[in-house]
Amino acid sequence: MPALIESPKLMQSSNLEAPPASRSPDRLIFTQSNGFRMELQHRVDAFLESTGRRPRDCWQMYLKSAILFATYGAAYVLLVFFAQNAWQAVPLAVLLGLATAGIGFNVQHDAGHNAYSNHPWINRMMAITLDLIGGSSFVWRFKHGIFHHTYVNVTGHDTDIDVGILARLSPHEKRYAFHRWQHIYLWALYGLLAIQWHLQSDFYEVLKGRIGKMRIPRPRGWDLVVFLGGKAFFFCMAFAIPLCLHSVGIVLLYYAITAITIGITLSVVFQLAHTVEEADFPMPAPDSGRISNEWAVHQVETTVDFARNSRIASWCLGGLNFQIEHHLFPRICHIHYPAIAPIVESTCREYGVRYVAHPTFCAGVASHYRWLRKLSKA
Length: 378
Ligand SMILES: [Zn+2]
Hints:
Blueprint: E1 4-6, E2 29-31, H1 36-51, H2 59-82, H3 86-112, H4 120-127, H5 129-132, H6 137-150, H7 182-190, H8 193-208, E3 210-211, E4 214-215, H9 221-245, H10 248-274, E5 290-294, H11 295-301, E6 305-306, H12 311-316, H13 323-328, H14 337-351, E7 357-358, H15 361-376
Parallel strand pairs: 2-5, 6-7
Antiparallel strand pairs: 1-2, 3-4
Helix pairs in contact: 1-14, 2-3, 3-4, 3-10, 7-10, 9-10, 10-15
Bound molecules: zinc ion.
């Protein structure tokens, strides 16, 4: 029988590092490394060193952040203060939604993983951008950084694949009769994701001290200040300031257009990485909580890349099209993922670890559709 160690202990190495130890009482255990993880880390570290690439504090990341903040600011000011008619306001609302998603994909996501900078205060500051655009960096730290990243696609532990009874994303979830249409109606529900975040789920999860079935602590001290301050800032930007200039109906209409753009963009991009036909959904042994793979193999086999050759996708999506590399190396700035992907892929082939990449964004969308349709059936 292979030796077993708990997952968080696997994550103490330099760049091949996942989130901090889970506070969940339901901690799972991964099989001990068979050498794949160490070899991968050695090769990627050697590549970064030999090419003089800095894992964090990359000028490309600072420049990209400035472009995204400027786009967000310009779209907001033009929409709220200058737009005269729907022909101007609708494209600006869509642009504002895309810029918001861009800040989420690129800036707060890297910062939340401490992949933005070597300076903790810069990571904290950039992670707080999520609070300013309507989310919560506190909730995200648990939901994404710990539950999703540690226990990818493990039903009952990865809160990203738990959407309640609305749909069945995992084959281990209960099927309800109305799920037979989920591959059709779920796309519309994706549009409501950001509205739910803004108005309901962050408050509900913090008050309840749970995300799905997983427990989280309640924010205290600085975390509480950021949570409440961020919500106050967002509600001022989204509703209070626009209401000084426009009617309630107009404010709600353009809030909805912006939020639906954010919701669809975030949902579709995140779903292409894990809820597709090629991703695994392993379950731990019921008595011991053991996962049959080592942590790094689990990350690769539950994750799928897409559109790796598209420079536009890679720039806009914050490297989320290189999700395998992101899950293995969440503390490396995403701008390096296209360069390290061939190293990861060849190491996987050598060690017999299944590595899947969809050639295009559309191929990923089609696979997500087929997966939803497959799980819609009994
Ligand atoms: Zn992540």
